Amino acid sequence: MRSVIDILDLSTQEIDDLIRTACDIIDNPEVYLEACRHKKLATLFFEPSTRTRLSFEAAMYELGGNVLSVSSGASSSAAKGESVADTAKTVSCYADIIAMRHPNEGAPYVASLNASVPVINAGDGGHNHPTQTLADLLTIYREKGRFDHLTIGFCGDLKFGRTVHSLINALSRYEGNRFVLISPEELKLPSYVKKDVLARKGLEYTQTTSLTEFMPELDILYMTRVQKERFFNEEEYLRLKDSYILEPKKLETAKQDLAIMHPLPRVNEISVAVDSDPRACYFKQVLNGKYMRMALILMLLKEAGK
Amino acid sequence: MNIDSIQNGVVIDHITAGRGMRIYTLLGLDELDCSVALIKNAVSSKMGKKDILKIDAEIPISLDVIGYVDPGATVNIIQDGKLAEKRSIEKPARLVNVIRCKNPRCISMVEQELDQVFLLTDRASETYRCLYCEAKAPENG
């Protein structure tokens, strides 16, 4: 049974197909109103999440399907000690497809090994979150019309940010992309990502601690939150935190067609004043996430039905 | 130092000096009833120093464990005091239930009866990663 646990489970051809389907859903929503009629999505969320769970559920409802929902580990049989494997086998008896978020890394993969229906990883700890990457890719496609020959700046917590690693992985499969990695020393991109992904594919990247230094060159600026708990030293955090807040002044040298992205939720890393800038795309990203989840659910149910 | 040669058993030779104890532990040789000799820092013309393990019983040996710790080692099967078979060793592509993941957030820490699986993700740097969470294998797993 085909599942999607990691963004690399999808070929570039499949990602292109999903983008095409998502764009068609956007243009012709009425065609898809009954596409998943009588189908059930189980959203198994063993840790709190609002936006991802609602996005999956909205996606299934807009396809005419139904949703079975577990919204916290405490209210599920997992609290009684049931294994992920048993949960997956049991839920497969009720639902046609599963979206799982779990605090333990690799749990959706274990679920996929045991389920008889497709499993979508909706986030496993700090590990993978492929549907966020799909949302990011649709946003890039709709803003830029391509995935190659782009200069992409990633800013903030590049060490622990799973969305950053996943998007770098996805974009590294396309030609001519250049990465500008903007972070404090403490939160630099891990060397295994630089070595295993960027260096192995011969992709160009630049590391900097300045948000503004390479601003004029960027086609995309992907912001993430610098979290206080990641620092050993509060003084260092206080010294650095404001350097990575995006404000209108810092955008003065940016391209007119820059796309500003953020996986959300934001705290203070993008000033609210930036929201009205036409280059701000982060709320479009949320909407794009729903369309890509619709496309993915359709693809996996279609394959499962074969 | 002299250790008697064995009649029927296994000799793991050419172990990089210092890695013999790790192989001894991962193979669970401490649980055997037969004679087992671990010779550390034996003189070697090729290697300078090497470790050797001699097991005085015909037992199945996991080549994956030896390949994981030291692919340069050699495994000799001894029968009637003579070399009966020489087994070649290489880094295994997949390690099952040899080492444990140390990532506290990994599902393998909590899921019942889940095999501990590591994959060789980079042969050049000999990097193994957990199948479930992709954490790097612990140095002394």
Written overview of the protein:
The complex is a heterodimer of chains A (306) and B (141). Chain A has two domains: 7-128 and 289-305, Rossmann fold; 131-285, 3-Layer(aba) Sandwich (Rossmann fold), CATH 3.40.50.1370. Chain A has nine helices and nine strands. Chain A has helices at 12-27, 51-62, 84-92, 107-114, 130-144, 162-171, 191-199, 234-241, 282-305, and strands at residues 40-45, 66-70, 97-102, 119-124, 151-155, 178-182, 204-208, 220-223, 259-261. In chain A, the strands form two sheets. In chain A, strands 7-6-5-8-9 form a five-stranded parallel β-sheet, covered by helices on one side. Chain A is globular and about 55 Å long. The relative contact order of chain A is 0.15. The mean pLDDT of chain A is 93. Chain B folds into two domains: 9-87, Aspartate carbamoyltransferase regulatory subunit, N-terminal domain (Alpha-Beta Plaits), CATH 3.30.70.140; 94-130, no CATH class. The longest helix of chain B is centred in the N-terminal third of the chain and has 7 residues, at 20-26. Chain B starts with 8 loop residues before the first strand and ends in an 11-residue tail after the last strand. Chain B has two helices and eight strands; from the N terminus they run βαββαβββββ. The model of chain B has no long low-confidence stretch (mean pLDDT 92). With 141 residues, chain B is mainly beta. The interface between A and B is medium-sized, with 17 and 20 residues.
